[in-house]
Write a structure and sequence with these properties.
With about 150 residues, this protein is mainly beta. Helix content is about 0%, strand content about 65%. Strands 1, 2, 3, 4, 5, 6, 7, 8, 9 and 10 form a ten-stranded mixed beta sheet that branches.
């Protein structure tokens, strides 16, 4: 489960792009041995830049990631979403994480999010990951809530 707080940065940067910092914590609600996510708590501070055009939204992210007791790492990724109905978004995310030099992985997810209000949203995603140090894929289910402070 992911809990995040989003701070949108002021419009001092290019007006056609939205910038945000979104500190988050991912709680250990899965079991890597069962193939449904991780067993540790992760803390991340991503910087996100987005551009929306009509009912399409593209977001790029670069993040610092830390698992307590381990070295910090980084992640980079992209998310493309479309809005088929008001306040309901469907999307695909591609992400590369390098938590430690020997344990990088790539993840692809399909998901949806529902915007209850401009500040509160609920999301869920089904994903598949491949670790560099393993020959098998891992599956993940992610759900979470996000509250935006403007």
């Amino acid at each position: 489960m992911k809990l995040a707080l989003k701070w949108e940065l002021p419009d001092v940067l290019p007006a056609s792009l939205d910038w945000a910092v979104e500190p988050e914590i991912v709680l250990p609600t899965g079991s890597r041995s069962a193939g449904i996510g991780g067993e540790g708590t992760d803390i991340a501070v991503p910087l996100r830049v987005s551009r929306q055009q009509e009912r399409m939204l593209a977001t790029a992210q670069l993040a610092w990631v830390k698992t307590p007791g381990e070295d910090a790492g980084w992640s980079a990724g992209a998310l493309v979403e479309c809005e088929p109905a008001p306040a309901l978004w469907l999307g695909q995310e591609l992400l590369h994480e390098a938590l430690v030099p020997t344990e990088a992985f790539r993840r692809g997810s399909l998901g949806l999010r529902w915007e209850h209000s401009p500040r509160l949203l609920v999301f869920g995603a089904l994903g598949r990951s491949r670790r560099r140090s393993a020959d098998d894929d891992e599956h993940s289910v992610r759900v979470g809530f996000e509250y935006a402070f403007n």
